[in-house]
Amino acid sequence: MKRGLALLFFVGPFLWMALTSVWPEAQLTRPLPEALTLASYAGLGGSFARAVVNSLIVAALTTAVCLAAGSAAAFAIARLPVPGKGGLLAFALAVSMFPPIATVSPLYLVLRAVGLRDSLPGLVLPYTTFALPLALWLMTSFFRALPDELYRAARIDGCTPWQAYLHVFLPLSAPALATSAILVFIFSWNELLYALALISTPERRTIPVAIVLFAGEHAEPWGQIAAASMVATLPLAALVLLFQRRIVAGLTAGAVKG
Amino acid sequence: MNREARAGVALAAPAFVVLAGVAVAPVLAAVWLSLHRSILVFHEHRFVGLGNFQFLLSDGRFWSALGTTAYFTAVAVGIELLLGLPLALLLQNSGGLFRAALLLPWAVPTAISARLWAWLFNPQYGLLHRLLPAVDWLGSPRIALHAAILVDVWKTTPFVALLLLAGLQSIPDEVVKAARIDGARPARIFRSITLPLLKPAILLALLFRSLDAFRVFDAIYVLTEGGPGNSTETLSIYAYKTMLRAGDFGYGSTLAVATFLCVACIGLLFGRALRERT
């Protein structure tokens, strides 16, 4: 009963979205559709497909950068005598809490000056700063949980610190890398503020911008908006279903450790 | 420096160079910009000292946006905690599928979910409008902000519940069992054992959510763009419009810096409370 109520509130709107996406445009004024149609999906066209590709590119690039820089730094903080390492983690946490609006104006001007403002790589930079701290924290707590002997054994066997990272610790950290990747990917897939501020060419819009600026000729094309939303939601629904346990663990990792 | 430390610095450097270069330096640059009159289209850029901040103090629209942001944050986070706790208790005895279903609103882009809710609120044929035809969800200045709060509650209550669930699971079973053997009723156990032991998790959820809610942009931008009549305009929305619609980067940066300072205050305040607890 309680569970049903919770599901109705949290999942119900998605069912309405799904129904709207197959609801014939001409019958939207009716209480319920008399027939279902895929016309809204067929009408989406190339510009939305373009946005999906753009989002994939930005999210993939951001994830790659965050995993590479985050896991290397996490290994250093967890296993090597880096000066001031406690402060570094606190610093990363503080950065993740910066309000995005605070960095929009200078980044806009700098990216414009170097010709990256209206480009997908230009988006990766700000996305990285907000997602990297999360990856760094997750990876650090993973590396810390590994036994101390592992690093020493690798060194005694003749590994340099770099080799110990690349050949021993990185392969072992696959689960933490996967969790970080999922969370960073979701974050980049969803970001709106920077994409709206920096991207002006319609062909370079990401999904959130495309959905927000979805323009119809007369009234708002609700059927098509719903269809586009379904397309953008399905990959996330799949991620959540497949990796629910990982996502929850990653999100609450900080909470458990205090 | 020995070999270990050298490798450590080299491995850690890229991440921290990026964080310093793309997050810290821009914030400092925003502070510098906020001391200028800087309007892109007019190619105007001159130093005005604290002039923008002087204007800020007498800018009624700033104070109204600050009030709206604070109200949004307090009410949304309050409701999320109140609903999050029973939801966490419900999650404790539920399977993975239920958990995954609740994660969906959190995982979907806010831009999409806000569009979805705008459709539910639609004054012609939205579902909520059909159920409650008397309510003008987004068109009335007194209701629109609460509609935005509803969307925020819908999106982030599951996240709060998961944080609290992690806290619940860290409470040792023996304590609860011992209390039960001593004859404590469930309500008493909840009040005297669960709730106090849950306090760090509650504070943490409060910290994360307050910082997040205070910088709210996506949901309100999509639902109302700050309207009707600036009644839902938050600090981020006002700063965004000033910078990217009016092209006023100087005063826009002043608003952004003010937002940053508010968020820093919230962070320090809760951060201290959290450290005292743990």
Molecular structure report:
The complex is a heterodimer of chains A (258) and B (278). With 258 residues, chain A is mainly α. Chain A is globular. The two termini of chain A are 33 Å apart. Chain A contains twelve helices and no strands. Chain A has two domains: 1-37, no CATH class; 47-257, MetI-like fold, CATH 1.10.3720.10. In chain A, helix 6 (120-145) runs antiparallel to helix 9 (174-190), helix 7 packs across helix 8 (161-172) and helix 9 (174-190) packs across helix 12. The model of chain A has no long low-confidence stretch (mean pLDDT 91). With 278 residues, chain B is mostly helical. Chain B has two domains: 3-47, no CATH class; 61-277, MetI-like (MetI-like fold, Orthogonal Bundle). Chain B has helices at residues 3-33, 51-57, 60-92, 96-107, 110-121, 127-131, 141-169, 173-181, 186-214, 218-223, 235-245, 249-277, and strands spanning 36-39, 44-47. In chain B, strands 1-2 form a two-stranded antiparallel ribbon. In chain B, strand 1 (36-39) and strand 2 form a beta hairpin. Chain B is globular and about 75 Å long. Chain B starts with a helix and ends with a helix.
**What is the structural class of chain B?**
mainly alpha
Fraction of helical residues of chain A: over 70%
CATH superfamily of the largest domain in chain A: MetI-like
* The CATH H-level homologous superfamily of the largest domain in chain B: MetI-like
* C-alpha Rg of chain B (nearest Å): 23 Å
Query: What's the domain count of chain B?
Result: 2
Shape descriptor of chain A: globular
Largest sheet features of chain A: none
- State the distance separating the first and last CA atoms of chain A: 33 Å
Indicate the CATH topology of the largest domain in chain A: MetI-like fold
**Cα-to-Cα separation, first versus last residue of chain B:** 35 Å
Approximately how much beta-strand content do the residues of chain B carry? under 5%
Q: Give the overall pLDDT of chain B as a whole number.
A: 92
In this structure, how is the largest beta sheet of chain B organized? 2 strands, antiparallel
* CATH classification, class level of the largest domain in chain A: Mainly Alpha
Q: pLDDT under 50 segments of chain B (min length 5)? A: none
Look at the helices and sheets of chain A and give the structural class.
Answer: mainly alpha
Elements of chain A, N to C (H/E): HHHHHHHHHHHH
Alpha plus pi helix count of chain B: 12
Poorly predicted spans of chain A? none
CATH-assigned fold name of the largest domain in chain B: MetI-like fold
